[in-house]
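ok so i was messing around last nite and threw this chain in just to see what happens. nothing serious, just curious
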Amino acid sequence: MERSQEQNASKLGGKTSVKFKEAGIRFPASIPYYDSEVIRMIRVTVNNRNAEAIPLTPATSGAVGIPVTFLFSDDWDGLSATAVFQGSGTERDVLITDNACEVPWEVLTESGDMLRIGVYGSDGDGTKVIPTIWAVVGRIEDGTTPSEMDPAIPTPSWAEQVQQASAKALQIARQVKADAEAGAFDGDPGPKGDKGDKGDTGATGPQGVQGPKGDPGTGLFISGTVRTVADLPAVAEQSIMYNVGISAPYNIYMYDNGEWRDLGQLEGAQGPKGDKGDKGDKGDAGEKGDKGDTGATGATGPQGPQGIRGETGATGATGPQGEAGATGATGPQGPKGDPGNDYVLTASDKQEIASIVIDESDIGTDPLETEAQTIKGAINEIHEDLDCAVLQAAAQAISGNGTTSGISLAGLTANHVVANWGMFSDAACTTPIPENAPTCDITITTAANAWSVTIANFSATFYLRPTFILKQN
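result:
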């Protein structure tokens, strides 16, 4: 907050009856000055840590927009000042701009309470802080309020006021920059001078001594720079600020009432690319150098690619027959084959069985039985016996250990015995179970028109299809 020496030259703390001109005090240009009339405002004189309020008009409940002016002593030069108002059971902070601000309406909502004003000054980095005592303005009088009245706009928080002031300053700076680039501050150009001769390049001068440290700048004080919002401190002092980002322009974050607020970017956008410079003069060609000495012999190069294949030669004569080699050792026994499916006797099979039976019988000892007709009749009889004696059961699902009784099979008798049986994993009996897969005990018994099976040591479900043949007495 900059103040002129003329504003701060007068002695502060005069009586209310002393006129402003006599006290040598000037108010900001934004507040009109009246020589003979009472100014409708509150005046606060600030001398170091003392503050005195001089109300030039009563404070009434329901009032909005009451102006306040501040007169500061030299101790406050270069400090940013904030006015703190108390009244109606609440407290509000207002940023002082151009030595003036307005009373926030929130502290004038109830009559009967005392209105107090304090001022807090800081240089931004905490090296100089001046808090004043409370200045009592007076009792809040009961003001007239219409029966229906729209509520006033809430007073912005201190952080929002700082952000608005920063945005306004940035807008002014951008406008000044735009005016400067547009030539608003340029004078008339002078005549172009003659081009001078190109001077010789001078020797590089010695390193200069480091200059003195400059005075602290005014405005925002940035405490540090972090890459992301997550990298900000969890807890910080009120109003402390950080840059957030990987590179400029950064976003400014301020800690306000327990949380970080994004104040936006304060750096302008990158300017346009400058014009390309003039091309330099071509340098003089250098003198031709002397011929160099012959270099040493280089290392042997890598092997070249393979040459083209030559033509095929003539076929040679056939050699003599070699001697026979010794007989090789017997190979290992092959694996056991899968069990075959149930075999159904064909007409040829039946003919072969009948011929064997006839050969092993006593047929032929009697001349009458050796006749062809008798032999043919015997073969046909054996065929009929085989057709009646061989029975194949339908596939029966067996569910693990136990006995399955009374499985129906027409024509079966107690004299039938099991010729063979097969175990399958499907009802169509197309996928046999290998003989070595299950280790189980199977017992099949026959009865009139039915058969039974007992399974032990095999709990899985499978399909059983036995073939029966009539036992010959």
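not much to say yet. DSSP finds five helices and 20 strands in the chain.
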